[in-house]
Amino acid sequence: MTRRNPFFPFSEQTSAGRAASEANDRNLSAVSHVVRRSDREAKNGHRGGVLWMTGLPASGKSTLAMLLESRLFSAGICAYVLDGDNVRRGLSADLSFSLADRTENLRRIAELAKLMADAGLVCIAAFISPLKVHRDEARRIIGTDFNEVFIEASIAVCESRDPKGLYRRARAGMIAEFSGISSPYEPPQAPDLTVNTERENVETSLARLLAYSVERFSLPAGA
What we know:
Elements: H1 15-27, H2 37-44, E1 49-54, H3 61-74, E2 79-83, H4 84-88, H5 99-118, E3 122-126, H6 132-142, E4 146-152, H7 155-161, H8 166-171, E5 193-196, H9 202-216
Parallel strand pairs: 1-3, 1-4, 2-3, 4-5
């Protein structure tokens, strides 16, 4: 079945995709939880929400996301990281890196992150999400729980790090549609938080993420 792509006009979807969407609208209805979100948050001792980390490859998203998760967990916070490589190995294992499939990948992630926030978790989503339209759609899906965090570093610095050798392979033409090289990356113009890993060390960047999380998700001060 052809997937519905929310970033393209409805008229550009296939007839099969339109039929599936219309059938879903007719046949599905939301089922209300007996346990309310407010009850989950009261039990957890903090609000749920989503930190959506965007940035170039090797800007530091995964490193900071995993460190933040560890710090929050140690403080008794219910937090979980959705990381690009991990999601690609499971939830989105059927998708390529074409623009259409990257769009679908991010749509799935946004829907999952929304559920995690509703469950009272702090969801840390670390994805390149290269285009503004991708992040705008994620914000639309997730709603007020969405927090856009720009992990900023110049392409020169990211390429000098290149821990996986991806930039080298992209420059050699071995990786198509690589963000920042053969595919565009559109930096956020008004993110909720900017963390510059080119100017700041890891501990400083992590401290700023922690401070923002404490305020945004009503975490205990000890976090």
